[in-house]
Amino acid sequence: MAHVASRLPLVPRYRQKLRTVPFRLGRPVWVDDPDFDLSYHIRRTALPGPGKRRQLADLMARVMSQRLDRDHPLWEYWVVEGLSRNRWALISKVHHCMIDGVGGADLYRVILELPPEPVPSPQDSDQDQPPSANALAARAAADMMQLPLRGTHALTGTVADPGRTIRQAADMALAVARFSPSLQPAVPSSLSGPIGRQRRYAWARASLQDVKTIKRELGGTVNDVVLAAISAGFRALLLSRGEEPRRHAVPSLVPVSVRAPGDHGGFGNQVSATVTDLPVHVADPAERLAAVRAEQDSLKACHEAMIGQALVALGRYSAYPLTSWLVRKAFCLPQREIVTVTTNVQGPRQPLHWMGRRLEEIIPYVPIASTVRTGVSIFSYGDAIRFGITGDYAANPDLDVLARGIEHGVSELLLAARQRAAAAAGQARPA
């Protein structure tokens, strides 16, 4: 408890909660919680025997199935005792509105590592008094009155640099043209459909060095390799359910960070997204990776992430009551275009410690919603990559098939990479 308390000044958002503006006149605002109680957010529990992977995964699923209380800052830490080999775990549960994946990776460095110099203890007197409901409403009304000024300022910038505006418009048109096929409903399968409130959780492991070997011999990026492995996992899951893996069966939402280079200190959510088709219909692992590479190169060339950024920017020039209403209505519409979400975040390479104990591994979590029955989060720490897999409880009794399929997908690619390297070495050997 004291360990976390000493670092709270480095993470001021952890002492804040959301306040809704009366009548939804403006966006919810962050305010200091005058009744902040650290003991509410730090919780302790223990695993039943034998305290291995399955018991920890089941606990993770139960913790993540429960909604965070909006009357408190939106985070919890669960200290989990009872793991095998005299180990313990820390479950970090933080709402996505507080921080995105990249910011979450940087948060590990703040919470787990010793700061370079002593950090002053937080003082209650330093906390601002939360604004009244009348003050929030008045501030929202003033903000709406400034919308025409913001629009005029944006238009002035457009006129001042018409060349840049034309280039952006051309890029946006290309992105929309590339994005349009993604609006087609996915091929029906058991991977999408209604979901409930309860979750299952599993994870897969891979070596970062193995992934880099695959990248070096077969081409592409680290992200291409992990997406190819995930494609193999979904292919295995469909086959185990007696379903034929078909083209456009697993379109995936792929979040993309829009943080500026070197931006590591900001909290909040700074992401856009693209949609990529996972090639589950391709049986050969090397050809599957080549299909992923081609898809990702096409997405990068057409700047598809610009669409999400443009929609977010549009909200700054629209009245919040209108945009809020449109978003709520949009969530009520049926969603048949996205089957899963795959998000990849690069974590710290150096070892981290917590109260004198070395952190062995970090296993990520991604939420699911709408008709998305599974989600995969990829996180690298040190020389390891972990795939955290979230699934709807009722729809995924076989979630471990997906996890083992991902691991097998990496093994297949590594074998193909080594075979190609051996063939190349044989050709290079003089007669």
Fold blueprint:
Blueprint (H helix, E strand, L loop, with lengths): L1 H4 L10 E4 L9 E4 L5 H4 E5 L6 H13 L9 E9 L3 E8 L6 H12 L20 H13 L1 H14 L1 H18 L19 E9 H11 L3 H19 L10 E7 L13 E7 L7 H18 L2 H11 L4 H13 L7 E7 L6 E2 L2 E2 L15 E8 L2 E9 L6 H30 L3
Parallel strand pairs: 3-4, 7-9, 9-12
Antiparallel strand pairs: 1-2, 4-5, 6-13, 7-8, 10-11, 12-13
Helix pairs in contact: 8-9, 8-13, 9-10, 9-13
Question: Can you walk me through this structure?
Answer:
The structure is a single chain. This protein is α/β, with parallel strands linked by helices. It has 2 domains: 130 residues, Chloramphenicol acetyltransferase-like domain (Chloramphenicol Acetyltransferase, 2-Layer Sandwich), CATH 3.30.559; 268 residues, Nonribosomal peptide synthetase, condensation domain (Chloramphenicol Acetyltransferase, 2-Layer Sandwich). The protein is built from 13 helices and 13 strands. α8 packs across α9, α9 packs across α10 and α9 packs across α13.
Produce a short descriptive summary.
This protein has 431 residues and is α/β, with parallel strands linked by helices. It contains 13 helices and 13 strands.
Number of separate helices: 13
The total beta strand count reads 13
User: What share of the residues does DSSP label as strand, in percent?
Assistant: 15-25%
Domain count: 2
Structural class given helices, strands, pairing? alpha/beta
CATH homology superfamily of the largest domain = Nonribosomal peptide synthetase, condensation domain
**Could you name the CATH topology of the largest domain?**
Chloramphenicol Acetyltransferase
CATH-defined architecture of the largest domain: 2-Layer Sandwich
Order of helices and strands: HEEHEHEEHHHHEHHEEHHHEEEEEH
Based on CA atoms alone, the radius of gyration comes out at: 24 Å
Distance between the termini: 68 Å
Q: Report the biggest beta sheet as strand number plus sense, adding barrel if it closes.
A: 6 strands, mixed
Q: Mean of residue pLDDT? A: 81
Poorly predicted ranges: none
Proportion in helices: 40-55%
Strands side by side in the biggest sheet: 6-13-12-9-7-8
